[in-house]
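[Q] Does anyone have a clean structure-token version of this?
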Amino acid sequence: MFGKSKQSDDGPGDPYKARAEGFHAKKLPKNWLTSDPEHDLGDSKDLATYDRLGQTLVATMTVDALAGHDAICLAAEVYHLVAGTIDNKYAGVRHVVFDVQNVQYMDSTCVGVFVELLTKLQGLGGRIALVNADQNVEYLFKLTRLDRLFPICRDVMKAIEAVERAG
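[A] Here you go.
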């Protein structure tokens, strides 16, 4: 039903390689956040739309599930936007608000990727907040106590205020 699992060249513990048959993911570098932005990370443009409000990048998710390779591609693109290596339009952005109004499911890879992205953004003086979280997504962050690191807000303006006030 889900396909047979394959071993990657880097061994069974490599989380950055797709293992499921029929999954057309690109091979990602292990240092996916700091790799060359020209590296083909896949169709991350289809995962979110971006707007800038002051020093905050608002990423509105356009998918209902955020997992595995998609989460890695999204986080890499967001990091490169904030770091200014992809588009000068976002130069000076420090914080990120993920509007997850459409997302009903996140897996553990996505949560781990968000934590790593937060660590990198904190090095640049930035923070991350979530807004419009579905009940399942909010429960995941509360269960793991990550709601202490990622403020979960009901509207975008409150989320922007939360990250800019804390930053």
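[Q] Thanks! Anything notable?
[A] Residues 44-166 form a domain with the Transcription Regulator spoIIAA fold (CATH 3.30.750.24).
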